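Chain A, query sequence.
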Amino acid sequence: MEHRCSVRKPVELQLLLYKHGLPIQSGVSRDLGLGGMFVETGTRTWRKNENLEVELPGESGQPAMYLSVAVVHHGSRGVGLVFNAISSEQRDMLRGLLFNGAEITPGPAPAVPRAVA
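Chain A, predicted structure.
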């Protein structure tokens, strides 16, 4: 029975999985939605509810965004991940990728307040 809260579309991206900020495995996404994704990781198994981070690539190999994820299920082909919490900016980037075919690109850096002398 399907329990997803969002529709997933077939999207193939090379990505990295992180644990405690350290890269631990590469993988390939097979589907992506606003609520989560499936990543082919081979035979490595993950515990259900294990917290990881996923790096979605940006243009020219630059990292675009890191998303906090939790393992929902794992099988012989890979792992199903659900996004723990994403910002509105990250959600907009995901929407662009899913519905407009746009690339995931980082937004402009936030302005840093400067002291006036």
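The chain has one domain: 8-99. The beta strands are 8-10, 14-19, 22-33, 36-40, 51-57, 63-74, 78-85.
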